[in-house]
Amino acid sequence: MNNLLKSALAAALVIGTASAQPALAQASGTVAPGIAIANVDAIIANSNAFKTAETQRQTTYKAQIDQARARSEALSAQIKPLADKFNADRSAAKPNQASLEQQAATIQQLQESGQQELQRILQPVSLSRAYVQEQIDDKIDEAVKNAMTKKKVSLLLSPQAILAVNNNAYNLNQDILNELNTLLPSAQVVPPQGWLPREIREQQQAQQGQAAAAPAAAAPAAPKQQPSGR
Fold first, then answer.
1. Is residue 97 left, alpha or beta, with left meaning phi > 0 and alpha meaning psi from -120 to 50?
2. What radius of gyration, in Å, describes the C-alpha atoms of the chain?
3. Are 100 and 82 in contact (CB under 8 A)?
4. pTM
5. Alpha carbon distance, N-terminus to C-terminus of the chain
6. Which of 1, 78, 103, 172 has the largest count of CB atoms under 10 Å?
7. Distance (Å, rounded) from C-alpha 207 to C-alpha 219?
């Protein structure tokens, strides 16, 4: 996979957990009575719902992924000779700076427009990933609470919140993962028609609220009625 497609994939799939699955660390013992640690990102990435969706997405959106790969290869083939010429001209004894600047601008424009095109092609893939992530997010808090209750943990820390733990430090990774797999055995890969990620929905609702409040704020106050003379 070439760099242009990698960049587009990274940008198109920016919403949600990365596809690489962090290792799910396990240990025994306790940090202190009622205190434990857990890596929520690793738990999500190792959940049945997330892993199954990652596999299903490759089939469900194969057409878009293949189209993006083919278009990326074509764009790279288009840009490569321009980049080669730019590098050759730059290495000349007396390079033409004006020409180099124009060439660089052309290459940059092609790269940016190409990446935007690839992001449009991969938008359904991005929405699918965000949809799956939102389904998991809706269950992860409940899974955490269930595991804490069963293990009698009152304070749960993330690995980043502590400087170090010994080898016997207890974590709830597997317990939370088990709860999450029970609450959400699988996730829907294809979002409903017109679905948007929660963050965008909330932004739209906020904008609609502001738009609705604006006319009322802009309306002039009714003039005070003058008392009638006798």
1. alpha
2. 27
3. no
4. 0.76
5. 90
6. 172
7. 19
Q: In this structure, is residue 219 part of a structural domain?
A: no
Q: How far apart are CA 155 and CA 36, in angstroms?
A: 7
Domain that holds residue 130: 3-213
| Number of domains, the chain | 1
Which residues have a Cβ under 8 Å from the Cβ of 11 and sit 6 or more positions away? 115, 119
Amino acid letter, residue 112:
E
In a domain, 35, yes or no: yes
Contact partners, residue 26, CB within 8 Å, separation at least 6: 171, 173, 174
User: In terms of Cα–Cα distance, which of 67, 24, 66 is closest to 46?
Assistant: 24
H runs (alpha helix) in the chain: 3-12, 40-45, 48-60, 62-90, 97-121, 123-151, 173-183, 198-218
Q: What is the mean pLDDT of each run of 10 residues along the chain (230 residues)?
A: 58 43 57 84 97 97 97 96 96 94 97 96 97 98 97 90 65 95 98 95 90 69 59
Q: What is the pLDDT of residue 22?
A: 66
Q: What is the four-CA torsion angle of 178, 180, 185, 186, rounded to 10 degrees?
A: -140
162: helix, strand or coil: coil
User: Hey, what are 61's tokens?
Assistant: 């959106």
Cα–Cα distances in Å, from 107 out to 30, 119, 196? Answer: 57, 18, 33
Question: Would 222 be classed as within a structural domain?
Answer: no
Structure tokens at 127: 């929405």
Give the separation between CA 70 and CA 118, rounded to whole angstroms.
10
49 found inside a domain: yes
* Interatomic CA distance for residues 188 and 197, integer angstroms: 14
